[in-house]
Amino acid sequence: MGVVHDVWRVTKELLEATALPWPSEEREERLRTVDRLLQERQELLWKLRPPYSEEEQRLGREIIAWNEEIERRLHRVGDEIRNDLRMAGAKRQANACYVHPYEQPLSIDGMFYDKKR
After folding, report:
1. Structural domain of residue 28, as residue ranges?
2. What is the pTM of this model?
3. Closest CA to 10 of 57, 63, 56
4. Cβ atoms 45, 65 nearer than 8 A
5. Each residue of 42-91: pLDDT tens digit?
């Protein structure tokens, strides 16, 4: 069928590769797979040239629908990664407070000011 069918095939693989959930143990390998598929699809998209047959137009509409779902899934994964990084930073900061308790600035919560002077 040509380039449109190849784009459809790669987009379908991409849809399957972005299936949720993404366990943190598999995240790095899945990101590499998604990146490879996105690059492959980009190279194929540069080769697309009209006019398109009815079948190619139907495949194009299916590709567009899948692309929206892929984008939503990748945004969710990005949110999970940002959340994990934020949590790791908070854990690192809390751990530093326990390891070096006197190097952190003192908290002003709970201080008493005598106003009678």
Report:
1. 3-99
2. 0.74
3. 63
4. no
5. 999 999 988 899 999 999 999 999 999 999 999 999 999 999 999 988 88
